[in-house]
Amino acid sequence: MKVSCITRHAISNYGSLLQAYATQRAVESLGHEFEIMDYVPACEDVSQQVRTLLSTKPSWNGNPLKKSVYRLLMEPETRVAGKRFARERSQLLKMSPHYASLEELKANPPKADVYMTGSDQVWGPISSGTYDLSYALEFAPEGARRISYAASFGKKNIPDSVRPRFLEDLRAYEAVFVREDAAREQLASWGIEAGQVVDPTLLLDGEAWRRMAA
User: Fold this and answer.
1) What's the Rg (C-alpha) of the chain?
2) Is residue 50 part of a domain?
3) CA gap 57, 173 in Å, rounded
4) The whole model's pTM is what?
5) The total number of structural domains that make up the chain
6) What distance, in Å, lies between the first and last C-alpha atoms of the chain?
7) CB–CB of 104/139 below 8 Å?
8) In terms of DSSP bridges, do strands 145-148 and 95-99 run parallel, antiparallel, or are they unpaired?
9) What CATH number has the domain bearing residue 12?
10) What is the pLDDT of residues 149-178, one digit of tens each?
11) What is the C-alpha to C-alpha distance for residues 38 and 99, in angstroms, rounded to an integer?
12) Do the domain assignments include residue 204?
């Protein structure tokens, strides 16, 4: 089967990159074709990351001089890291065409036999502090097979303003597997049965990671 996976693969840190890589390797080891949806919401694009971070820091954002200093300090490092991680992603991950919004995904979703969410904090707030229903597979065609692996909320509670649509999307999943006790318990309280699994980085043995690092 072809599995198309949406995850937080484009954050400029090793955790995001390596969990995506490990998920790819694990699914391919089962004999399936796999791709990461190259979905990067606009607020998490490297060109907008400093602005997004600044919007969540009132102590810096309330003063024009402080805003300028923050951007002067953070912008160069953020852009350099973004370019380096983008290069690593292009080498390690098999990715779909780029998407920047839920609307783009709905208009032209990737073609797949199975749509997958996970792992990482895919069901928590993104960098802008909002919840993105793309990670609940709201764009998947009607009747499509949906699963999650090692999905995490990051926080226990989903705001009331988002919860009804979010739960409607999750109830369409064929199988739900999460990372933490808290996530499994929270889903159970909403009437959604979930299994608990390890982070995908633990599915690869030491030799696999040594070959990658060589």
Assistant:
1) 18
2) no
3) 36
4) 0.86
5) 1
6) 31
7) no
8) unpaired
9) 3.40.50
10) 999 998 767 888 888 999 999 999 999 999
11) 6
12) yes
